[in-house]
Amino acid sequence: MIGAATRRSAPERRRHQNEYDGSTTNSAGLSTYPRLTAEFRIDEQPGSIKKVYAAACEILHTSKPSIHKVASFITTMALEFKTMLVVLTKINKVVKEAVISKLSAICNLAIRIKESRSRIAAELEPERVGKSQEIAALECQQWQYPE
User: Fold this and answer.
1) Within this chain, do residues 21 and 47 fall inside the same structural domain, yes or no?
2) Are residues 31 and 50 in the same domain?
């Protein structure tokens, strides 16, 4: 009789089996994951994540966000979330590794954006200097020969 009291039905066993990853089992026996809003998740995170989220709101809600600022923010945010994922233990290892690899790819893309912007700026610098010298020469001529 003791064994019968602890015996669980199949859906209940699945529910207990899936508790470690945060999923629950519905009446059809399918696993459903709880859906939370981003604001709810952010409120539960450590202070550093809140700072990154606040910086994101500040950067992305300006009229013309700088490419360099956005790329720096993306890199910072991806590295923050990567370190946060490494610490979490309730996530499946395969999923954790996949997310970390995607975050690394995002970091690499953001770094490429920064580098390409710097390269383009370096290529355009001589042209900008030449145009400013040309404008200065025209202004000088205008002062020498007024109409």
Assistant:
1) no
2) no
Same domain, 49 and 23: no
Residue 80 has a CB neighbour count (10 Å cut-off) of 18
Strand 24-25 to 31-32 pairing: antiparallel
| Contact in structure between 75 and 107 (CB atoms under 8 Å) | yes
C-alpha to C-alpha distance for 118 and 125, rounded to whole angstroms: 10
Range of the domain at 17: 1-35
Measure the CA–CA gap between 20 and 40, rounded to whole angstroms: 20
Say if CB 85 and CB 100 are below 8 A apart: yes
Q: What is the pLDDT along the chain (147 residues), one digit of tens a residue?
A: 444 455 656 556 555 454 444 444 455 544 444 443 444 354 455 556 666 666 666 666 666 666 767 777 777 778 888 888 888 778 888 888 888 888 888 888 888 888 887 788 788 888 888 888 888 888 888 887 766
Please report where in the chains the tokens 């508790």 appear, as a residue: 19
> Are residues 81 and 24 located together in one domain of the fold?
no
H or E stretch covering 85:
helix 67-87
